[in-house]
Amino acid sequence: MEKRLKNYLLRMEELLKQADSGRLSGEERRLQQEELLVQIAFFQHERMVHLIVTVTFALLTMLALLACVLSPEPMLFILVLLFLVLLVPYIRHYYILENGVQKLYTCYDHLADL
Description:
Radius of gyration: 20 Å
Helix content: over 70%
Oligomer: single chain
Order of helices and strands: HHH
Low-confidence stretches: none
Shape: rod-shaped
Strand content: under 5%
């Protein structure tokens, strides 16, 4: 999904350059806005799913850490470590999705203002 988002953002940058230079008619701009809204909805859905997964893993990590403090078992330390290994990529991916969707909002506003 990250690659798809980055490719779409590059495509939008090129489209905005065309729009700024006047090479995009009003009808083409309107169609691009509609397409952009569809893509934003897809990426918002993906972002919401990853938010739920990320928060779930964060809560599980905190619970495992609490259990580790209350009962210092070696297996609990391993569990905390495993949760952290999974949590870091989830946070990174959610961060990329969040920032990408925010950039798409900016692109939509830019197209609307032309």
